[in-house]
Write a structure and sequence with these properties.
Helix content: 40-55%
Number of helices: 8
Distance between the termini: 35 Å
Structural class: alpha/beta
Shape: globular
Order of helices and strands: EHEHEHEHEHEHHHE
Radius of gyration: 17 Å
């Protein structure tokens, strides 16, 4: 197998959570372009159907699944539906995350309901997704990719619950990698600023303001794109990374 062939995902079957738009959409499309069949899963039916159709229009295989990742039984059902549709599950990307009300608050000023929502969406869903994937992958095993955040590596005023959850994701990645090896590899990607809908609403800045203002502060002089994160996921999910587990790759423009 040539070095470039090791980055291919032909014959693989991937689930990407929270993939109706933004970074998740980029990951789903990237995995499909690398050869994987992809299950596009998120809460908004019209969004997952649009992404799945985009993949199919480009010649790929895709299934749209409306899934609420705050409901563990729906996560388990997603894994089962994937195997029922494609015969197996080999890649699971825990991408879903964010905040329900997208309101900046101090960590001690966060209402209990908002705290629980962010921990459940950003951390518990990763645990539940990894558990469902591990079960559905069977003896052949596979790869779990957890999407973390650069916020987990530094103080995060006005965004504390999210950062705490993502710090937990980094810990889960290391522990799961140790517990599931060698059958399942568990890896992570930690993106820097990408102009998603969530980030635009949270910061109150326009996409252009993010690109010009925040981008100029980074060593590489630009903010990220979904494709930047997708490329890292394709690598980590592929045979090219077959000797990588427990690691979280920073994709941050140098921040």
């Amino acid at each position: 197998m040539s070095i470039l062939d090791r980055f291919r995902l032909d014959g693989q079957v991937a689930v990407v959570t929270g993939s109706g738009r933004g970074i998740g959409e980029g990951i789903a499309v990237g995995l499909a372009e690398a050869g994987a069949a992809v299950v596009v899963a998120a809460r908004r039916t019209h969004e997952v159907e649009a992404v799945a159709e985009k993949i199919r229009a480009a010649g790929g295989q895709a299934l749209a699944s409306t899934t609420d990742f705050l409901e563990v039984d729906q996560i388990e059902a997603l894994a089962d539906a994937t195997v029922a549709e494609f015969g197996k599950l080999t890649i699971w990307v825990n991408n879903v995350g964010g905040a329900q009300d997208r309101t900046a608050r101090t960590i001690l000023g966060t209402p209990e309901e908002a705290w629980d929502n962010q921990i459940d969406l950003n951390l518990k869903s990763v645990w539940a997704g990894a558990r469902a994937a591990n079960r559905a992958m069977g003896e052949e095993g596979g790869v779990v990719v957890n999407i973390s955040s650069a916020a987990a590596r530094q103080p995060s005023p006005m965004n504390g619950p999210y950062a705490a959850a993502k710090f937990g994701v980094n810990s889960l990645t290391m522990t799961l990698a140790a517990e599931l090896a060698p059958r399942v590899r568990v890896v992570g990607v930690s993106p820097g600023p990408v102009p998603t809908e969530v980030m635009i609403e949270y910061t109150g800045m326009s996409e252009e303001q993010l690109r010009q203002g925040l981008g100029s502060m980074l060593p590489l002089k630009r903010i990220g794109e979904p494709e930047d994160v997708a490329a890292a996921v394709v690598y980590l999910a592929s045979p090219a990374a077959s000797w990588v587990t427990g690691a979280t790759l920073s994709v941050t423009g140098g921040s």
